[in-house]
Amino acid sequence: MKPKLELINLNDLNLSESKEYYDLLLKNRRDLHKIPELGFQEFKTSNYIYNQIKDYVDKIYKLATTGIVAYIYSPNNNKTKTLLLRADIDGLPIQEENKIEYKSEHNGMMHACGHDAHSSILINTIKYFYKNRDKLKINLKFMFQPGEEGFAGAKKMIDEGVLDDVDYATALHVWNDLDIKKVAIKKGASMASSDSFEIELIGKGGHAAIPYQAYDPILTATNFINYCYSYFPRAFNNSNSYILSFTYIQAGTANNIIPTKLILKGTVRTFDENIRINIASKLEQILKSFCNLNNIDYILKYNLGYPVLINDPFLYDIAYKSLQKIGVKIEKFKSMGSEDMAYIFQKVPGIYVAIGSKDEQNNSPHHNPKFNINETSMLIGMQYFINFIFTLQENI
Fold it and tell me: Quick one: pLDDT at residue 239?
């Protein structure tokens, strides 16, 4: 059943076009929702998108295995700037529990983060500007990116040249922490970096009844974890800008055996690059001290993941004006979630916007097997892209 269309104050789409694009947004999103695929395996998804847009662009090609790049040039394309608009396309390894007619057809895979909606928004933004290319004063470059969910697909596309001719970039995310008709945006650091670590503690196993004959990795791990949880919240001046969480611990085979080895894993999130590096250094210093005290050897693997996502001040102003024109409520956006769009924003000025997609029926969080969205959020997202393009080209 098609949800009721809540009419938005659409500046550049008349009423009949609003309904037309809404129907297209629904169809494309629901088609994609049925065929979720994991990072760099999005072959059906990529082919679907390619076939949807190939007749509406000036140039199109594949990149990074399953990624797609396409262009619509302005009439004076040799003398103008180029804006990159990006949508991520991958799904998640989750078994969908929604009872909907467009439920995932791929066992154990689901679009549980809204990437199907992002792709649909970008597909239809392309179709809009194909019809309205005479209004363009800048070139548009469209990036359908694989592998956002932990695979750093944006970085791979950068390495393969996606930013070679790009001056500015923008992206959006449907956001189930925000009600429909609300959006969120922030100048500067907006989404956290995401690092992970794995620690192996190697002690000396023994009988649980004779602990003094063993070097207990469990004792070391518990003391280390508790100390980290008390130390790090007080370690740096900006205490609300980072989180360290231990998320996995595994050791032992029986209740009467002190194990020789223990595996410990966790994550670090921060909005500050200096704190990010200091946490990595301090974590090993603390680990080394506890291991020395307890005659434990250790192996630490620390992986620097997605960097902090930083929104450009100039593009923030452009985006804010663009959102004001839609008539939505604008809130401040800051999330401990991470996003590989941050790699792009390290190279070119960029802006990232959260589009509210929650209502009473669609209120499950992202990465949940019952995640779904109020689909009118896609119309708001498409209108943001349209307004942003027109506002940007009048201010550069």
Answer: 65
